[in-house]
Design goal:
This protein has about 260 residues and is mostly helical. It is built from 11 helices and 6 strands. The strands form 2 sheets. It has a 3-stranded mixed sheet with strand order 1-2-3. Strands 4-5-6 form a 3-stranded mixed sheet. Helix 2 packs antiparallel against helix 4 and helix 5 runs antiparallel to helix 7.
Length: about 260
């Protein structure tokens, strides 16, 4: 009897170990990654991929992209060997925003079909346990977002162009960012997000403001050039809403985050 119990316990331990290793092992997308040193970098291939696979609402046709990945893979090869250090400030910002969004898509395609990025790894492992090649190095998505974009560019508007492949994220634009478009798109994406009642809603009668959890998770980022989230919102809200926010004692409530995949299917 004792032997049977021991065997069962060992089997359960083995199963648990396999599950643990599956969910927590690092998965790396390895490809040629020696920086080229070129001063020019083109996002044309990614631009084509986005136009072919992303609709006007930011939903992605992952089925089609997984079946025809050649153009996308060619762009990822370029990302892996790029040298953004030689680019201008706006070119670098566009590079890393495109890189983040492209590698999120890559992570989804590699594990598709899924219904959410949270199904890939436990405890947000999609962002911390998958590794990709970019600019001659290996990064997780968290390292690109927190260690590069938020740290080196320090622009809270970046949160509205980074897309985590989920329904509560900002919608994915179906064009690649460039040095020429990045500033205008930062403004447009921020304005559209804040004017979207699914992300920011003001209840005048109850004196409450319902906000995306992006404003909770990254509240300190909205102190860059502002006095905080409330001050930042005022720049993008309708005038009457901005005035209400400034003149009234309001309470903030944060909306549930929908991690459903931004999938056309």
């Amino acid at each position: 009897m004792k032997n049977r119990i021991l065997i069962v316990c060992l089997l359960l331990l083995s199963v648990c170990s396999v599950l643990f290793l599956y969910h927590f092992r690092v998965e790396a997308d390895l490809r040629a990654s020696q920086p080229t040193g070129d001063t020019l970098f083109s996002h044309d291939l990614f631009d084509q991929v986005l136009q072919e696979h992303v609709d006007k609402d930011g939903q992605v046709d992952y089925t089609k992209l997984k079946a025809n990945p050649e153009k996308f893979e060619a762009y990822l090869d370029l990302l892996a060997a790029a040298n953004p250090a030689v680019l201008s400030y706006n070119e670098q910002l566009a590079f890393w925003v495109n890189a983040y969004n492209a590698l999120v898509i890559k992570g989804v395609v590699d594990h598709y079909p899924i219904t959410s990025v949270r199904k890939v790894k436990l405890f947000n492992g999609f962002f911390s346990r998958l590794k990709f090649q970019a600019a001659g190095k290996t990064y997780t998505l968290n390292q690109i977002e927190h260690g590069i974009i938020r740290t080196e560019f320090v622009d809270p508007r970046a949160h509205f162009v980074l897309v985590c492949a989920s329904s509560s994220c900002p919608p994915l634009w179906n064009r690649a960012y460039t040095a020429e478009t990045i500033e205008e798109r930062l403004e447009t994406a921020t304005l559209n997000f804040i004017r979207n009642p699914a992300q920011v809603r003001i209840d005048h009668a109850e004196r409450r403001v319902y906000l995306s959890k992006i404003f909770k998770w990254y509240k300190d980022d909205f102190k860059e050039g502002y006095e905080g989230v409330e001050d930042f919102l005022a720049d993008y809200l309708l005038p009457e809403d901005a005035e209400f926010l400034a003149s009234t004692d309001v309470k903030f409530r944060y909306l549930d985050y929908d991690w459903t995949l931004n999938d056309q299917h």
